[in-house]
Write a structure and sequence with these properties.
By secondary structure, the chain is mainly α. It is built from nine helices and no strands. Helix 1 (18-38) packs antiparallel against helix 4, helix 4 runs antiparallel to helix 5 and helix 5 (113-134) packs antiparallel against helix 7 (162-196).
Length: 259
């Protein structure tokens, strides 16, 4: 058995490629919309302040206190930071790029398991970071520590304000879509690793050139076994007086018939 790390065959039929692709496309488009409308600060600070009002987490007012007292700015929790918002937008764009590359590479028969594995290792790590960030801890205020963002851990109805409830639902939907996208990435990663494991397909022909060579040899064998006359030689035949006589008799000139 010869192990090929690059030019490997998938261990399932090609039509199985399109099933996870449909889910991946839907999740990618959904995240592009949800992350796009959340930028730069559609509901992040609103939910942060709502959690502070309900004594669930720290308050963004701490930043104003630091500005007013000329104190060093505290480290903003990742869950409430602009960095997380920009990060989410960036990975949604990267996901769309990977999806386009994946589709083109599959059509051109160069979407190999090793490429799939590398791509989805990166995407799985990025989406795991996004999931952690959206539901991440907030320990900025020691009086009100939070291990999980309140809009994830609690129902949206804990807030009386309808606008906050609406923002909470959008945040929950964004988090759920991100978790689903992470599951899709992990599935593709597992599929790539599964196809990278040694299997019986390692002895199958992998290169299209080998297939062409096999077809050529088969056609040559059929040609040799058939009744196709060989190609006449192009070299010069030896010329003797006897050859001239036979050629003359073979022509059967008209005047010779009446002698």
């Amino acid at each position: 058995m010869v192990y090929r790390p690059i030019h490997r065959q998938w261990r399932t039929p090609k039509r199985a490629f399109y099933i996870p692709l449909i889910f991946e496309l839907g999740a990618t488009v959904g995240l592009l919309i949800l992350f796009g409308i959340a930028q730069p600060d559609l509901f992040r600070t609103q939910l942060w302040q709502a959690g502070a009002d309900l004594n669930f987490n720290s308050s963004p007012v701490l930043l104003l206190y630091a500005y007013a007292n000329h104190e060093p700015l505290p480290q903003i929790p990742f869950v409430w930071s602009l960095m997380l918002t920009n990060f989410n937008v960036a990975i949604s764009v990267i996901s769309l790029f990977v999806l386009i590359v994946k589709l083109v590479a599959f059509i051109m028969n160069v979407w190999f398991p090793i490429i799939c594995t590398v791509f989805y290792v990166v995407l799985s790590a990025l989406y795991a970071t996004s999931v952690y960030g959206q539901a991440g801890p907030d320990n900025l205020d020691p009086d009100f520590p939070s291990s999980v963002a309140w809009y994830i851990a609690k129902p949206c109805t804990v807030a009386a304000n309808q606008s906050i409830q609406s923002s909470c639902r959008v945040a929950k939907g964004t988090f759920a879509t991100t978790v689903f996208m992470l599951a899709v990435c992990v599935f593709n990663l597992g599929y790539g690793i599964y196809s990278m494991l040694p299997n019986e397909l390692d002895n199958a022909p992998q290169d299209s050139d080998d297939d062409d060579a096999g077809s050529f040899n088969k056609e040559t064998k059929i040609w040799e076994m058939g009744n196709i006359p060989p190609t006449p030689r192009t070299g010069t035949m030896p010329y003797t007086p006897r050859t001239m006589a036979f050629n003359t008799l073979d022509r059967q000139l008209p005047l010779r018939q009446y002698r």
